[in-house]
């Protein structure tokens, strides 16, 4: 397994990658940001180890690091071990899951490449909440979506909270950025995709009537609260809604995504 290294000094520079994550866990283009991929807990760390992201080190209490012995077999990186108090003082908060791993980011996927090898895609606009973003990736992985395209206003899917909420599935579901929004939706049509915009508007088609299980389909999902912009809906091929009980006007975006992703599979 990875070589265990005891850490007893809170200021030991060998664990700087894990230091003060409440402030330092940021995108590389933001103040203080190092832009590392950070996994929390045994299950998510295992998924990071199995992902394309190059792992730099692990850090945890001995019991949790030992649980990863099989997953770290042959891994030539340090596994720093400390007691829970030292770990909390390094990280900046008490970590119930007991183990972290950090990795470098990989090169960004070209959206044309991702679109070209996919049949089912989620396209997101304005998903700024890291937990919603992580939940959407988890749902995409569970329900057979091939990838995620990030449009305007989306948060970083590799932020620690998104990785955690996704249960590490953001590390295996490929994603790409659409830089020209919503003009880049044309890239989908060029590859034969039908773009379905999810909206509660009364003039939209009911989900069961939209035939989303046929052909190549991209589901367009918007932010919590305001939803999709008018420009995004107008750029789609069809507007689709999930019928709801009277008095309820919307669903959490991750929940709405899960229902729609399931409809794409044609198994409902």
UniProtKB/TrEMBL annotation:
Keywords: Methyltransferase, Transferase. SUPFAM superfamilies: alpha/beta knot, L30e-like. It holds the Pfam family SpoU_methylase. One of its GO terms (molecular function) is RNA methyltransferase activity. It comes from the Bacteria. Residues 122-261 form the tRNA/rRNA methyltransferase SpoU type domain. One of its GO terms (biological process) is methylation. Transmembrane segments: none annotated. This is RNA methyltransferase. It comes from Saccharopolyspora rhizosphaerae.
